[in-house]
Write a structure and sequence with these properties.
The protein is an all-alpha fold. The protein has one domain. The chain is built from 5 helices and no strands. The chain is elongated and about 45 Å long.
């Protein structure tokens, strides 16, 4: 999740939120990171077998984030690329929503 948060920081600037207090900025970054991570997981779940999906779900339920990342990176070598793609899509959606 830390890598996602780091990549999302520029969204705060794009949305003009850098004048917000740091605590509020961090809160926004965390919410966006959770959305991105959930979206990536949904995309990935469709490509896993039932057994793999259950295993991933158990790891998530047990809050074993390192094991989740290890499993996802092992199963999807371009996991980082998926994250970046979803971050860009989310960023575009947020900016489009703000400008509407």
């Amino acid at each position: 999740m830390a890598k996602i948060k780091e990549q999302i920081k520029n969204i705060v600037e794009e949305l003009g939120l850098e004048s917000f207090p740091l605590g509020k900025q961090e809160e926004i970054i965390m919410k966006i990171a959770e959305i991105v991570y959930d979206r990536v997981l949904l995309r990935i779940l469709t490509k896993l077998t039932d057994q793999e999906a259950r295993q991933l779900s158990q790891l998530i339920d047990q809050n074993r984030k390192d094991d989740v990342d290890k499993m996802l990176k092992g199963k999807f070598p371009d996991f980082e690329g998926l994250l970046k793609e979803e971050i860009m899509l989310t960023q575009k959606e947020l900016i489009r929503g703000v400008n509407s």
